[in-house]
Amino acid sequence: MAKFRKEGGKRLPAISTASLPDIIFMLLFFFMTTTTMKENTMLVDLKLPEATELTKLEKKSLAKYIYIGVPKRELQKQNGTEARVQLDDAFAKKPADVGSYIAQKRDAMPENDQPLMIVSLKVDKDTKMGVVTDVKQELRKAYARKIYYTANERANAY
Amino acid sequence: MKKREIQEINASSMADISFLLLIFFLVTTSMATDKGLFRTLPPPVEKKEKNEEVEVNKRNIMLVLVNSSDKLMVNGEVMDVSKLKEKAKEFIANPANKENLPEKEVVDIPLLGRSSITSKHVISLQNDRGTSYQAYIAVQNELVAAYNELRNELSVKKFSGRKYAELTEEEQDAVKTFYPLKISEAEPKNYGQAAGGAQ
Hints:
The complex is a heterodimer. Chain A is built from 4 helices and 8 strands. By secondary structure, chain A is of the alpha/beta class. Chain A starts with 19 loop residues before the first helix and ends in a 5-residue tail after the last strand. Chain A has a domain at about 50-155. In chain A, helix 4 links the parallel strand 6 and strand 7. Chain A has helices at about 20-35, 75-80, 95-110, 130-140; strands at about 50, 55, 65-70, 85, 90, 120-125, 145-150, 150-155. Chain B is of the alpha/beta class. In chain B, about 35% of the residues lie in helices and about 20% in strands. In chain B, strand 3 (about 70-75) and strand 4 form a beta hairpin. In chain B, helix 2 crosses helix 3 (about 135-160). Chain B starts with 11 loop residues before the first helix and ends in a 14-residue tail after the last strand. The interface between A and B is large, with 56 and 47 residues. Strand 7 of chain A pairs antiparallel with strand 1 (about 35-40) of chain B.
């Protein structure tokens, strides 16, 4: 005959949490490797334009960034309120700087990737096209022909 | 003498520490991928061929002008951005084979067979230096939308209801040959107000 168990005779064993640190570490390493710290401090105010037909920028390592916009408030004393071009951490002094900046960035890339370089233009939506056109002309001269107009997703079409 | 056992180090705080690190990296991570419109610029103009402009039949050009107050003019008539997509679609596909829309050419396309396409059409986009970037992107966006919609329509029709994005690479190439993306950006010029459409 089967024995009757005493009520509450056996407690549920505590779930072992010994593997928890391992799991967390795994997640941690995942995020550590995928993280990219923000590469540049922004010197200009950026509100990206909105569009609907967007494609994703697949390989971020191939992208070099050019920012165009009005300098931030605290920088306006030295730099004026006109739209300026930001390359890395400084403003471009003359249009030709864009060309040398691109050449320098391209030289720093592995040789296989050099023809695949993409220049991502992050331009404030209120910028006048004159500045953008100048930059585009410089890019053409520097043979950096693949460009990318970065924009935000807009929910509704016209 | 009683042998002393080495006490095990208490590892229960390990999880907390790694949680802390995890949260730090979670917060600093920017997974947001950049999105935008991809474009290839034309190669730089050589000095000697500077004044030589390629002769294109007038019916093959759709001239889109954007002036400094972000107003739009298409082939000489003022237009709202919201109408641009339909206009561009009609221009690119020329479904009714009209006289004033791009001429068609019969080409053999793998997977699609013999098809007549408007291979010579060009959408010429010209903007003023004073055009705002938002307006420029909006126009670019509408033109790309026109191409995307046409490509989608074609692929749904030809490849048993699959959308363009769901096609294989070869099928996509075939559709791309059918509707090649031809947006040309003019050499920068200075316009005050947009000049007359006919050029």
